Amino acid sequence: MYDRINVASKTKKILDSAFDEPISVEDGNYLMNLKGSEIYPLLAAADAVREEIVGDKVTFINNCNINFTNICHVRCGFCAFGKDPDDPEAYLLDDEGILNKAEGGYRDGAREFTLMGGVLEDATIEYYEHLLKLLKSHYPKVEIHGFSPTMIRDAALNSEIPVDEAFKILKKAGLDTLPGTAAEILTDRSREIICPKKVTTQEWIDVIKIAQKAGITGSATMMYGHVETMEERVEHLDILRQIQLDTGGFNEFIPMTFMHEHSPIFLEGQRDLGATGTQDLKLYAVARLMFRDIIPNIQVSWVKMGFRFAQVSLLAGANDLGGTLGGDELSEASGAPDGVNASIRDLTKLVNDLGRDPIERNSTYTEFYPIEF
Ligand code: SF4
């Protein structure tokens, strides 16, 4: 593969080794800093490793977001969604409002409700339990992918119960999987700048491990391109890898590029435009080479990158297109370039055009049927 293009011997050596074992943090840092046409062999190697690990299938899920409130006392510097309780745009859905949203998704064939919202200062585990029971009583077959580690930590504190007890209650009430959001960048230096009121790095790790030990698997996420260094991106990947080797409960890795347009830290002039296109591609490729089959599913976020660039990112080591994502108000508030609703047909077209195989899945990657249009 390298015969006709100019590739440094160190790059070649690292990429060759990636076909046999996950690359080290040091090699991840080296690859993250590749420039120019040397990026091509990195992407090709990641794509080839992807093919070896998960084949040519590209999965996605028919899902529906239920953002039950935008009131949030955490107020992260990158978020355009959260509002103070007295903001004219603040809302908190009642049971009827939640069921109305769920019904719309259900009619569109949703297999998963993503139950997410701002962090209510006084929310308790009993309140989240109520939301789960409400949805499960009406839609028992739809999986619920819900809440964040910060929400669970705060609600457990408000309910004066330990986090493992909280997860037992939520699992019994119908929580199927945990989104693994609030990870952002798992270094306290970055978190202190962009989300000082969220869980710390160690708290995020602890809550995720407690959930997984309670039998609630979920996603590993990363929101990058704001205040972190390249080394912190790689450190984050390594933390996820270590968690997975320990508890094994991540179904997927979801890198989310920072959407600057409406974020407070951009509007206040503290940050520039976020990650560049090649940084996005290198993140996917390095993640694939660090994870290999440790976390086999790597998702592109079309809602954050737009359809066209998401499709290109599927050539950099990724194998999942996320969801149809009906009603994702968090991304909508951040300025999603291609909107926040896709149809199965839209996603299928992107995959077919790559010559790969579109497959619908559920939250835990059980596959359904090949899709033909
Ligand atoms: S990202 Fe989540 S926790 Fe942070 S301000 Fe937005 S809604 Fe609140």
Task: Describe the protein.
There is one protein chain. By secondary structure, the chain is α/β, with parallel strands linked by helices. The protein has a single domain, classed as Aldolase class I (TIM Barrel, Alpha-Beta Barrel). Helices cover 45% and strands 13% of the residues. The chain has helices spanning 9-17, 25-32, 39-54, 95-107, 125-138, 149-159, 163-173, 188-194, 201-213, 230-247, 264-267, 277-291, 302-313, 329-334, 344-354, and strands at residues 57-61, 63-67, 112-116, 143-146, 218-224, 250-257, 320-323, 357-361, 367-370. A four-stranded mixed β-sheet has the order 7-1-8-9. A hairpin with a 5-residue loop joins strand 8 and strand 9. Helix 1 packs parallel to helix 3 (39-54), helix 5 runs parallel beside helix 7 and helix 6 (149-159) packs across helix 9 (201-213). The protein is globular. The model has no long low-confidence stretch (mean pLDDT 94). Bound molecules: iron/sulfur cluster. Iron/sulfur cluster (SF4) binds at residues 72, 74-76, 79, 81-82, 118-119.
CATH class: Alpha Beta
Total count of helical runs of at least 4 residues: 15
Uncertain parts:
none
Order of helices and strands: HHHEEHEHEHHHHEHEHHHEHHEE
Q: What does the largest sheet look like?
A: 4 strands, mixed
Report the portion of residues in β strands: 5-15%
Which distinct ligands sit in these coordinates? iron/sulfur cluster
What is the count of distinct domains?
A: 1
Q: Termini separation (Å)?
A: 35 Å
What is the rounded Rg? 20 Å
